[in-house]
Design brief:
The strands form three sheets. The chain has a five-stranded parallel β-sheet with strand order 2-1-3-7-9, with helices on both faces. Strands 4-8 form a two-stranded antiparallel sheet. It has 14 helices and nine strands. The protein is globular, with a radius of gyration of 24 Å. By secondary structure, it is an alpha/beta fold. It folds into two domains: 219 residues, Rossmann fold; 115 residues, Cytochrome-c3 Hydrogenase, Chain A, domain 2 (Irregular), CATH 4.10.480.
Length: 349
């Protein structure tokens, strides 16, 4: 008896056969386009700018929802993502790659931007593609795409606020996507998914929500971050929170006490790292004995001070004042001890 082959099963069969043969769908754009039509596609343009590709590495390591699930299966019922352009992972190059970009922007699409936008000298310091023998500035492309996209996800802290790329003296005059849109009068919704890099779940979950209910369905905070992922303070979820409240602070890495004096930015950082865990749900920074560096905040890195120096908590109205007093006293005590030792050392010489 013949078995009916549904269009969905055909998609899975083709994807499985391609994987078994060790082939990449990105190397066969026409074939991929034909069988992917079995599901309702959501075209995505993923454009990289002034950054390090770390956000792509993180997102491509999504688990348990893998990047294969994201691109070939249903992210939400009846829909899957069709990644049409990605500077790094697409096999196409040159005119073929740019054609994929131009073809996609003729219809509805979601825009993912990774990396900041350099504005210095007309955007000369980040160019992708050529036209009439000249490089095309990222700023020019993002302005065009931004006006057409149904929504923009700024992936990573560089895309959200400039991040490391915009750190002083910021020679490239790099800005984040929201600021760039503001300067250009672009009204397309922007959702920031900061992190250096961001957790894969933050990106996949945000994209899924956009597919389900549109960009307006994503509840965001004042920094345009989804509150579903950035609604909690690292400090309030920290297993060493009790040590902070009791004024017990680590002075060396490896000590079991609060890492505040070693530069932990948990008291001002909003993210759910302890729930998500990293490296295939293995552990997170503080569990591994490292202080939170605050990479999910738009002020990261320059606005948070040196990574391994404590931050000033006296201006934060959300924290326990008694705990802040203990922390401040501990920092002062440490400084006095260090100064005393320095003087003793000088006298010995």
């Amino acid at each position: 008896m013949a078995t009916k082959l549904t269009r969905r099963h055909f998609v899975e069969l083709c994807a499985g056969s391609t994987a078994a043969l060790g082939l990449s769908l990105f190397k066969h754009p026409e074939f991929e386009r034909l069988f992917a039509d079995a599901l309702s596609e959501v075209p995505v343009i993923w454009f990289q700018g002034s950054g390090c590709n770390g956000c792509s590495v993180s997102a491509l390591n999504s688990f348990p929802v893998t990047i294969q699930d994201l691109l070939l299966s249903e992210v939400v019922s009846g829909q899957h993502v069709s990644l049409r352009f990605h500077n790094t992972v697409m096999a196409a190059q040159g005119d073929l790659a740019m054609s994929a970009l131009y073809d996609t922007e003729t219809g509805p699409f979601a825009l993912v931007v990774e990396g900041g936008v350099p504005l210095k000298d007309g955007g000369f310091y980040c160019e992708v593609g050529e036209k009439d023998g000249h490089g095309i500035p990222m700023a020019e492309t993002i302005e065009r795409l931004g006006r057409k996209a149904i929504a923009t996800i700024a992936l990573g802290t560089c895309a959200s606020s400039g991040g490391i790329s915009a750190s002083p003296p910021n020679p490239g005059e790099v800005v984040g996507i929201a600021e760039f849109y503001k300067q250009k009068g672009i009204t397309t919704p922007v959702i920031n998914v900061p992190g250096c890099p961001p957790h894969p779940d933050w990106f996949v979950g945000t994209l899924a929500q956009v597919l389900i209910g549109g960009a307006e369905s994503v509840k965001v905070d004042k920094d345009l971050r989804p509150t579903a992922f950035y609604g909690k303070l690292i400090h309030d979820q920290c297993p060493r929170r009790g040590q902070f409240a009791n004024g017990k602070f680590a002075t060396n890495f490896g000590d079991p006490d609060c890492l505040y004096e070693l530069g932990c930015k948990g008291p001002i950082t909003h993210a759910d790292c302890n729930d998500r865990l990293w490296n295939n749900k293995t552990r997170w920074c503080i569990e591994a004995g490292a202080p939170c560096i605050g990479c999910a905040e738009l002020a990261f890195p320059a606005g948070l001070g040196p990574i391994h120096e404590p931050i000033d908590l006296t201006a934060d109205q959300t924290l326990d004042k008694a705990a802040i007093g203990l922390a401040s006293a501990a920092v002062l005590t440490t400084a006095v001890i260090a100064a005393t030792r320095g003087k003793s050392g000088s006298s010995a010489h």
